[in-house]
Amino acid sequence: MRRRALLAAGLGTLLPHPVLGGVPSSSGILYAISQDAAAISVIDSRTRQVRQTFATDPGPARAVHLGEDRLVLSHPEAQALSVLDLRDGRTIERVRLKGEPFGLTVHDGDLFATNWSEGTVVRIDGEALTIEGEVAVGKSPSDLVAAHGQLYVTDREMDRVCRIDIERMVVTGSVAVGRAPFAIALAPDGLRLYVANVRSASLSIIQAADLKPVATVAVGQMPYGVAVTPDGALILVVNQQSGNVSFIDALSLTPHANVKVGRYPEGIAITADGLTAWIANWFSADVSLVSILETRELVRLKVGDGVRAVVAG
Amino acid sequence: MNRRALFAGTAMVSLLPMLLARRAWAHGPTPHKADLSIDIKADPAKVWAVIANFGDISWNPNAENVESKGGNDPQAGADRTYTLKAGKAFKGGGQMEESLDDYDAKQMTYSWRLESEDVESFPVSFYSASIVVAPADGGSKVSVEGRFYRGDTGNEPAPGQDDEAAEAAMAEFLQSALDGIKIKAES
């Protein structure tokens, strides 16, 4: 890895044991990432209040936990990733990445980012923060999840999901989904992938092990976010153009509710207790707290402009 | 930092063919907001009647040669195509194809999106928008909300295809549309 050797200058910092990206913790803390405001709102799910706001580098789009106290942010326009210390909100590391880093996940201590403009997925050492590998997947890869030593990447402009073998960093397969797949979630048992297709207003359900399509379910207009409850029973899909969240029964794959949220919603995170979901409303610059049991919005909190993602604490 | 500079240099050389091949299809990761409204001295029902038919945009001063299909039914593939007339912030001359996403006559609102772009004519690679008519001060207020991306979504957008160009084009396009609705509804 020549790049690794060239880049190994002074970025190494000891990190706490990293956790899997996207796994909700029990802290009840949520982070809302506002791209235009360059801010992170720290939200307490229990008091339903914004506890604190941290300033970040310009244009954060997505975030993932890298260990308990660190949050990695992607900055597509700035061609960089930044690492925030969640204890005081300081930016403690920066990683330059040619292109437009966007979707993020963490697996086995390593960090992975989709590179929107270069059509690749980049592997970054979670401790040294050095670039270890890059693999071409297609056009405009937007989101990714990791399971069984594999990455599953939405290849938005190729209308497919690509599978990458993490060990070798090679693409080992792909599956056609709907038009413009943007967001992807993994069932808690790791068996199924849920893919939100923006332009065909549908959710593709894919068997992770062999990339076999299971079903396609109609959702609202322009689905931009997807999440699964911790028990795997419900899939929540955020429909940006319809301004609501579709609740889909994971067993029967039938929609059973639609909950109206704020304007132009995008990202979603489900709290660890599985009782509530937070949704980032990009246009109205607020986050909606939705009761999953009651299928209704409980509260809407003002956050920074251009909020696109929420991450469980 | 020499090592990093060296890395950036080699990476740029190897990625150059991809940069040159970039096209407008990949509307990039930073969306922009459109948020406009206009007060109209006319009953909401009268204002709604002006815009209620998705395929009829005779009120829009920037649209000509309008063709439509599917009526007001998103499930039926409601869609309108028109030639964009030149404005101050856009050259025009290209085709705009817009499709209907949601339609609610009771709430006097619908939402639509740009289906296929022509960034030379209009320097925006994608937009989605919604319009709503509401009662206000004995008359009406028409509001438009939208989300859009600049024409060139690369990191170094070409002149005329950057954020400023997209903001200016979108603002003028939507403002003249609202003005058009006002003129027709108040006449």
Automatic annotation (TrEMBL), chain A:
Matches recorded under InterPro entries: Host-pathogen_enzymatic-act, Lactonase_7-beta_prop, N2O_reductase_N, WD40/YVTN_repeat-like_dom_sf, YVTN_b-propeller_repeat
Keywords, in A-Z order: Signal
Signal peptide residue numbers: 1-21
Domain of life where this protein originates: Bacteria
Entry protein name: 40-residue YVTN family beta-propeller repeat-containing protein
Lineage: Bacteria, Pseudomonadati, Pseudomonadota, Alphaproteobacteria, Geminicoccales
TrEMBL record, chain B:
The organism's place on the tree of life at top rank: Bacteria
InterPro entries: Polyketide_cyclase/dehydratase (IPR019587), START-like_dom_sf (IPR023393)
Pfam families in UniProt: Polyketide_cyc2
Coiled-coil portions: none
Keyword Nucleotide-binding: no
Record's signal peptide: 1-26
Keywords noted in UniProt: Signal
Stored SUPFAM superfamilies: Bet v1-like (SSF55961)
Keyword Signal included in the entry's annotation: yes
Protein name, per record: MxaD protein
